Amino acid sequence: MSSTSILAAVGSGGIVGFMLGLLGGGGSILATPLLLYVVGVTQPHVAIGTGALAVSVNAFANFASHAIKGHVWWRCAAVFSVLGVIGALAGSSLGKAMDGDRLIFLFGILMIVVGIMMLKPRKAMAVECRPVDLRMCLATAGVALAAGAASGFFGIGGGFLIVPGLMLATGMPMINAIGTSLLSVGTFGLATAVNYSSSGLVDWWLAAEFIGGGTVGGLLGMLLATRLSAYKNILNRLFAALIFVVACYILYRNRATFFA
């Protein structure tokens, strides 16, 4: 790999890590587009498999921070992760079987959905602790399987699905849902990466460079997050606008293949 390619990989990872550190989530959805259109990965499936590994490492790093602060509901995290892995393996197997360009076109549509969700103001959800009964267990299982399947299919973290899903299924507060979700995000990403790697669809050296850049970018993002906390809504809107631009580019690039 040339020095230019290494710089592109480290820099792209830095952008993802920076966004995650600055905004606390969402940045990982840029991993696949950056790997395809900046780093120059030619196969969409390799970009998704490699991106899933990077997302997984970032999630586990953030999870450790939340666990130390006591934000994790361990039993929910473990059950959600185990069930979701089944969905992630099924979703990633389906994604591998689909034409790469069509899969990336659907990824572009997903990015638009995520951008819209980021633009909506976050209102505090009224939640109340629910008893651990059959209904709660079934609801949690259903959300875990669906979130895992989406995560595996697109090679994303899926935190935007997991956090509200955990809150609605179990009644846990948002800070606990965020901390608890990160174990699932990491586990789903790892399951997806392992599934893709079994077909030779993960570039391990590229993943290492991407993750290295992400670590540095994440630290810079966290340092800036406290200083720019008053502007978080503006930053979220700017990031949502960036997601829309990237999504439109993806849809434009892959429109012919999808409708062929």
Structure description:
The model has no long low-confidence stretch (mean pLDDT about 85). The protein has one domain. The protein is built from ten helices and no strands. The chain is mainly α and about 260 residues long. The protein is globular, with a radius of gyration of 17 Å.
Summed up:
The chain has 260 residues and is mainly alpha-helical. It contains ten helices and no strands. Helix 1 runs parallel beside helix 9 and helix 3 packs antiparallel against helix 8.
Notable characteristics:
single chain, 10 helices, 80% helix, mainly alpha, globular, 260 residues
Summarize the topology.
Elements: H1 3-23, H2 31-39, H3 44-68, H4 74-97, H5 100-119, H6 134-154, H7 159-170, H8 174-197, H9 204-227, H10 232-258
Helix pairs in contact: 1-2, 1-9, 2-3, 3-8, 3-9, 4-6, 4-8, 5-10, 6-7, 6-8, 7-8
Query: How many strand units?
Result: 0
The residue fraction in helices comes out at over 70%
Beta fraction: under 5%
Mean pLDDT: 85
Shape: globular
Q: What is the number of helices?
A: 10
Total tally of structural domains: 1
Spatial extent as radius of gyration:
17 Å
Low-pLDDT segments? none
